[in-house]
Structures are given as C-alpha cells and as structure tokens.
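Sequence, structure tokens reproduced for reference:
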Amino acid sequence: MLKTQGRRGEVAVATHSDVPDRFSAGMRLWALGEDGTRREVQIEELWPHQRALVLKFAGVDSISDAEMLVGCELQVPRTQRARLESGWTYVSDLVGCVVLDGDREIGAVKDVQFGAGEAPLLIVGGDKKYEIPFAEAYLKNVDLEHRRIVMELPEGLLEVNAPLTAEEKKRQQR
C-alpha cells in the first residue's frame, strides 16, 4: 500500500492485477507487512483515484490506523484467485523458484519488484544477488510444479547488476 488517503482510514494502493474489477466491497484480503506479519483485512469501500485504487477497510477508521498498513503488500487468498490463461503466472508463485540460465543455476527468487521498467524484476539470491527482468524475451519455461524458471539471458546481463567485489568496493571508496 502506497500511502494514507483521506481522514477516515483510507489507503491508496497500486494494483498489479490484469483482472478487471479484481477487488470488491466485502472482499477479504491479507495485508503482509514488511516485517513478515500478516493481517486479514476486509474491503468496506473502494474507488479509483488518479493511477491508484483507494481502499477503505473495515475497522480502519483513522489516519493513524491506516498508517499501520502503508508499505504492506495486499494478497488475495489462493481460494479467491482468478483462473489464469495458459502461459500466465501469479507473481507470488515465482518466489522460491530456482532460476536457470540455460543449464546454469543462478539462484532462487527471493522477491519480485515492480516499477523499474516494463517487466517486473526477479530478485534472485544465491552466492550473489541479481536483478533479472522477468521478460518474455528471456523466458523459456516456467515449471511451477518443479519450482524452476528457465531463461536464456543476454550475455553480460548478470555481470551488469552483479554485487561489487571487495576490490571494486575499495576503488569506489577512493
């Protein structure tokens, strides 16, 4: 959730759903805090505002109540998920999958971030941390049953956003 919106406990949220009218009054969701805690919330009212959606949750009736939700990720319970067309994947299902560049294992998806470009970024951690665009052009296969994402990455992509070596850090500090 992006920020508080209004005086009655409303919050502005960015949605990452391609499902029209995904949210509705009475719908129950999970608010996942940055610290990993979860809280069930129920939508009381909702309306579009600029490029966001404003949600009013039951029992969240003041700005200070709403501030507790800022930074949380809203999650739709699995039982309420819309069926996806073949070839589509829920972002939350990608976390924990192992990413391979051809046969070479890069690491497991730790997070997925939006807003850095057209494609979401897979935050992949192993010995090193990488930001890999989840772009159709690089994607060869997503096997959720076996928790594997096979990609064909352009040469040099992993080196571009690889963590700095100890020597590179020393040079930066000079």
